[in-house]
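#struct-help
A.M.: can someone run this one for me? Single chain, 335 residues.
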Amino acid sequence: MTDTERDVFLPVAAQPSVDALVEQARTGEALGYDTAWLPETWGRDAVTTLTSIAHGTEDIDIGTSIMPVYSRSPALIGQTAATLQEVSEGRFRLGLGPSGPIVIENWHGADFGNPLRRTRETVDIVKQVLSGEELEYDGEYFDLQGFRLRCDPPETVPPVETAGMGPKAVELAGRFADGWHALMLTAEGIQDRLEDFNRGSEMGDRDRSEQRVNLSLTCCALDDAEEAKRLVKAHTCFYIGGMGTFYRDNLARQGHEDVANEVYDNWQEGDREAAMAAMPDDLLEDLAVWGTPEEARERFERFADIDGPDAVSVSFPRGADLEQIERTMDALAPN
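D.P.: on it. Structure tokens below:
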């Protein structure tokens, strides 16, 4: 195995309480995970929850993955990053991304617009805010001037990372961000996108050694291997079939267009079982991790050995319960 870092993504599905999420982060810390990432969808907000996690942990890094760029102004995101860096005593990482039109338009009531441009401008502005300098920005979406943080900027500026699946989004991450959050990629697929990220890094004259690539994997390790596979497959098909076209297109770009379209079409027609049946086990194994604890560890190590990612993250199926999450976190822990 390589020296790739191992992170944990706290569950995207609704949890019983903020305290439960804090306890999961504490468990991740005790098990030796490097960073605990928290997604922000349409459940608990990331800022309040991460504040509680920051106060409830000591060593593990914490971060958003991802905080949507449409639901807050860039300046507010910068303020938030500065504050979370303060309350975590320097352990915060800011992960940003556009999310998708289903969430942004139907939940936040905002125009999805041009996600690449919006993400780039947000990253630029957040970095200006965190620098403590007076904000001056003339962009397509934002024209800002005359203000700076009225509190001291962070002594250690938190990394500003972005998520992306398409070639241009990943190139943008390399050019302007401090890292890239990758998901739903095969070993071959991530190599293609790494070429985009590295090209962007060169275009932006960035120090590639200071940028962090994180590959997120849906994982489930249970004594009942079939149940683990069912949970992982249902989660994967939900994203391909039910969360707009981005995940479908991402899978198609990796040479699996027929599967992607069949899963998507069946899901859209309401036939969840047919959608899951359309996802072959060998392709699922190239995208996710499941099985008994021993089988899941073996599958996970194959991803950890992929050349390119600096960190590989354990994330969980949306249908997993607390016991299954804890079992998986323990089975795949770095310690």
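A.M.: thanks! The two ends are 13 Å apart (CA to CA).
D.P.: also worth noting: The domain at 5-331 is CATH 3.20.20.30 (TIM Barrel).
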